[in-house]
Amino acid sequence: MPGASVAGMAAGITYVRGDASAPQGAGVKVIAHVCNDLGGWGKGFVLALSRRWPEPEAAYRAWHRDRARNGFGLGAVQLVQVERYVWVANLVGQRGIRTGRSSGVPVRYEAIDAGLAELAGHARRLGASVHMPRIGCGLAGGRWERVEPLVRARLAEQGVAVTVYDR
């Protein structure tokens, strides 16, 4: 796997050093990441996605803009095809964003759980592996000790190969 070094495997999840916006391996791949429910796109991992492809951001903004009619909300997932064998999953797992006045963190574990369950169906239908940074643990403020069991239960234990990338 050029560009990534395998760092280990835990309970059906492969951990590698590398960039989740450049997923490694053969076959169909879905890059999963967490979005907020405000329609904001501009910090964190989404910047790496936007450097590679304009479609995920454009689709997310349109999805948010038309949210009264399309199911946008916490726990929802939007799949956007960016290459023949690469999709991006915009998963709404964050309530709002962190500001200087914020109390608490924006991550919503129950929304990530629901989104991962939906994503599993999409991944199985596409015959895809799922690739991600440590979702919900950057700007959303979550803890991987709480997210990893959700990823394991909803994806890895359902037969979906998962690779988590650490920079």
TrEMBL record:
Gene3D superfamilies xref list: Leucine Aminopeptidase, subunit E, domain 1 (3.40.220.10)
Catalytic activity: an N-(ADP-alpha-D-ribosyl)-thymidine in DNA + H2O = a thymidine in DNA + ADP-D-ribose
Residues of the Macro domain: 1-167
SMART domains named in the record: A1pp
Protein origin, superkingdom: Bacteria
Protein name, per record: Macro domain-containing protein
Organism: Kitasatospora arboriphila
Lineage: Bacteria, Bacillati, Actinomycetota, Actinomycetes, Kitasatosporales
